[in-house]
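Quick start: read one record
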Amino acid sequence: MKDFYDLHHARSRLVHSIIVIGKEPVFIEDVEDENRKGQWKLYYTPLPGGDRRIIYFPHKTINLTPVPLGFVNVPKHKICCRAYRLPQRGWKIGLDQSNIIFRSVIKGGHIPKLLRSNALKNTIKNIYPSYIEARELVTEPEQSQAFSRNFAIHGSKLIHRFNDTVGEAKEKPELNSDHQFLKEALEKVA
């Protein structure tokens, strides 16, 4: 478990970032000293919002490992995008506006603010529609829908992690001959 030197250190690493407590992604609003050596009071709200809660750090349910990312479905816009953590030396342990970027599957596509959204919450919790459901949701060539962290459908194309077209989104997904090495990974999620 990560330890902090003092209140300033704890606040600089956690405030206004997303971490996981239990199995839920949460937004850390503030950190206070609890007047007990090495214990901090964390104020947080669950994603995408809600009532403010308190937990004392350290606590066995607080997870400070990197938050899992991947494709993010944005149902309102009928698109998906890819969430990346930027490889920068930063102050935050969790995700915040300065260390995450969202790239659209559609070149030049609009990406709404997603940091404190249900869309990002579902990605962190690995909640996606099935391949068949995703395929049914994509009804136009410029629409996209992810069915796992690493696979999405864009029009009739099967997209993999870095927006590479790796096959066709037919009744069953079909990989191109150059991408057969993804077969096992695709079978796990399709």
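The chain has a mean pLDDT of 90.
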